[in-house]
């Protein structure tokens, strides 16, 4: 007599959260200001302002923009603020930094709005692998938000998870 195979994972209260499913849709672009600097190093205010004013900002319509400078130039804070005044009418979001910084800011906003009450006293797995660029900080933000409510938190897949937290 053979025993029936029971899928204990499917029958458990185990809940999986996949940060990839929370990924904000939209194109990400890097705006590098080095080409607007004298020899890629010196910001000349008058020239910088004139270039910004004449630039076609509409190409950033609906995009997420990471403002950066890839050279060792010292960029005054007002320069990024000035660019933001032009981008605000077009871009979904603009941040100073690289694409990882941009993703971290986007996930911070998404996770801030995430209702974790539905995970109260449940075992939760935070799915680890994703095809989209989920920054490490997003995982930290998520576990910090889940820890006060979840019964336990694991990382990975149901078949091979790493335990991270368990309520006492």
Task: Provide structural commentary.
It is built from five helices and seven strands. It is α/β, with parallel strands linked by helices and 168 residues long. Helix 5 (136-146) links the parallel strand 5 (123-126) and strand 6 (152-157). The chain has helices at 8-11, 45-54, 77-87, 99-113, 136-146, and strands at residues 15-17, 28-32, 64-68, 93-96, 123-126, 152-157, 160-166. It has a four-stranded mixed β-sheet with strand order 1-5-6-7, with helices on one face. A three-stranded parallel β-sheet has the order 2-3-4, sandwiched between helices.
Q: Provide mean pLDDT, rounded.
A: 92
User: Whole-Å distance between the termini?
Assistant: 41 Å
Q: Count of helices?
A: 5
- Tell me, what's the shape? elongated
* Unreliable sequence segments: 6-11
Instruction: Tell me the number of structural domains.
Output: 2
Cα-based radius of gyration, to the nearest Å: 22 Å
Pick out its properties.
single chain, 168 residues, alpha/beta, 2 domains, 3-stranded parallel sheet, 20% strand
Topology at a glance:
Blueprint: H1 8-11, E1 15-17, E2 28-32, H2 45-54, E3 64-68, H3 77-87, E4 93-96, H4 99-113, E5 123-126, H5 136-146, E6 152-157, E7 160-166
Parallel strand pairs: 1-5, 2-3, 3-4, 5-6
Antiparallel strand pairs: 6-7
Helix pairs in contact: 2-3, 4-5
Summarize the structure.
This protein is α/β, with parallel strands linked by helices and 168 residues long. The chain has five helices and seven strands. The chain has helices at 8-11, 45-54, 77-87, 99-113, 136-146; strands at 15-17, 28-32, 64-68, 93-96, 123-126, 152-157, 160-166.
């Amino acid at each position: 007599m053979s025993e029936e195979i029971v899928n204990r994972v499917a029958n458990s209260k185990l809940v999986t959260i996949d940060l990839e499913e929370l990924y904000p849709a939209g194109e990400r672009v890097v705006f590098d200001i080095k080409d607007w600097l004298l020899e890629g190093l010196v910001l000349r205010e008058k020239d910088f302002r004139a270039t910004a004013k004449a630039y076609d900002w509409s190409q950033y319509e609906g995009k997420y923009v990471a403002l950066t400078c890839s050279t060792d130039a010292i960029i005054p804070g007002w320069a990024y603020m000035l660019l933001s005044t032009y981008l605000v009418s077009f871009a979904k979001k603009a941040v100073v930094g690289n694409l990882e910084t941009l993703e971290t800011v986007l996930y911070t906003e998404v996770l801030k709005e995430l209702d974790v009450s539905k995970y109260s006293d449940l075992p939760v797995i935070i799915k680890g692998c994703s095809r989209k660029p989920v920054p490490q900080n997003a995982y930290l933000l998520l576990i910090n938000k889940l820890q006060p409510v979840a019964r336990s938190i694991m990382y990975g897949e149901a078949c091979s998870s790493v335990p991270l937290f368990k309520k006492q």
